[in-house]
């Protein structure tokens, strides 16, 4: 077949996937450059960075603190809390919990703040979904 969308499961829609829109306008390269300079795109970038950079800094400090405590504060990390469970084990498990919590916070933030703005920008570039 010669079409770009042909393949296993091709259904006449983009990429042969039923969840993809049938067709969207393909913007010219200059339109992408212009959109990147637009106030809407700059606002989207600013909102993303205001969330990501502080959250990444918080997590890196938290992670590095855990590693440094493990390397240099053996007595503290080995302090028994309940039975054979010590502070080091609890802080290690807290790393996993923190990762999941940050992920959940980001998903809520993206759904509320980023995704609607990104969808609007995409619609401006490619037109409404056919």
TrEMBL record:
Asked whether the keyword Hydrolase is assigned, the reply is no
Q: Name one Pfam family in it.
A: DUF485
Q: Which InterPro entries match?
A: DUF485 (IPR007436)
Which of UniProt's keywords are assigned here? Membrane, Transmembrane, Transmembrane helix
Reading the lineage from the top rank, the first entry is: Bacteria
Where are the bilayer-spanning segments?
Answer: 51-73, 85-107
Annotated region Disordered: the residues are: 1-31
* Keyword Transmembrane among record annotations: yes
Name assigned to this protein: Membrane protein
Query: Which lineage?
Result: Bacteria, Bacillati, Actinomycetota, Actinomycetes, Mycobacteriales
């Amino acid at each position: 077949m010669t079409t770009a969308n042909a393949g296993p499961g091709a259904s006449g829609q983009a990429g042969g996937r039923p969840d993809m829109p049938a067709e969207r306008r393909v913007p010219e390269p200059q339109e992408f450059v212009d959109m990147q300079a637009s106030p809407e795109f700059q606002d989207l970038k600013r909102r993303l960075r205001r969330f990501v950079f502080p959250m990444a800094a918080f997590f890196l400090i938290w992670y590095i603190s855990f590693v440094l405590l493990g390397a240099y504060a053996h007595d503290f990390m080995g302090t028994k809390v309940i039975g054979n469970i010590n502070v080091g084990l609890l802080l290690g498990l807290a790393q996993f919990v923190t990762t999941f919590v940050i992920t959940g916070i980001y998903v809520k933030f993206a759904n509320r703040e980023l995704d609607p703005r990104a969808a609007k920008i995409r619609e401006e570039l490619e037109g409404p979904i056919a």
